[in-house]
Fold this sequence. Notes:
Elements: H1 2-29, H2 52-81, H3 85-110, H4 115-140, H5 149-153, H6 160-185, H7 208-236, H8 241-266, H9 273-299
Amino acid sequence: MRSLLNRLAWITSIGMFLVLIMGTLVTKTGSSAGCGKDWPLCNGKFIPDYTLSSLIEYSHRFVTGIEGFLVLGVFILVILKFKQRDAIIYASSALFFTIVQAVLGALAVQWPQSAPVLALHFGFSLLAFVSTLLLALVLQDAKLIAGNKRAASTPKTITAGFRRLVWFTWVYCYVVVYVGAFVRHTNSSGGCVGWPLCNGELVPEITGAQGIVFVHRLAALALFGLIAMIAYSAKGNKQGERNHFVTQWSFYLVSMQVLSGAFVTFALGTGWYLTAGMIHALIIACLFGALSYLGVLVRSKSN
């Protein structure tokens, strides 16, 4: 049963990642109004007439619906068959955030929403994805479950300071993600032309779209610095092979995220803009997942 549940959890996690990316595609292509103000139907139909915007929007709704049933099924199986505290927490949070992001999506269709509220939609989708990812990892590897005997007998080599740094970076990364989503939903991407300078200035005037993009760049730079500190600390101390591997990949991913942000800037007004934006969203989802995994690894092993 555990093997079957683990496979189902991985399928659910991959599905949630697909929902996340498809949601980004809806936003980037301006397809959120592709089904009008109808929900869950599309322009009053179960199978809508073909237009590109309706196809993108309705495909996102369809996949989200299937994913919702998968999340619910995994949640029920975990509660009934796998009564481990961490697994129950992750299954419950996956179900909660899936419901929240679905409700926000429905509300956005029915009534106009402000950019700050719309940005939360991506943030909750990201939390739903991370919850399914951690659930799959916990089911696959019992050593990840807090309080397990094997972990308790392992020498404590991770300092409390390192653990606090990891979790602070995790929270801060979510803030950076939110600001990035806010940039998209306010259509501010063109506020800064050029990279790394903003409209030819090192520190431009912090107003309007220019200010929003510049604040996001500063926040992303600080995130790069924090993850570099984590990678350096893990390399200089005996943090464990698994932790060192995840910190390395976190640093690779944040480096790629910075470069993909530059790609988005240079692609403005070209046919590459959509591709650049999708790559940017894909990498940040992977980075947030890696930081979440690292947080679980260090949670129960600090001095």
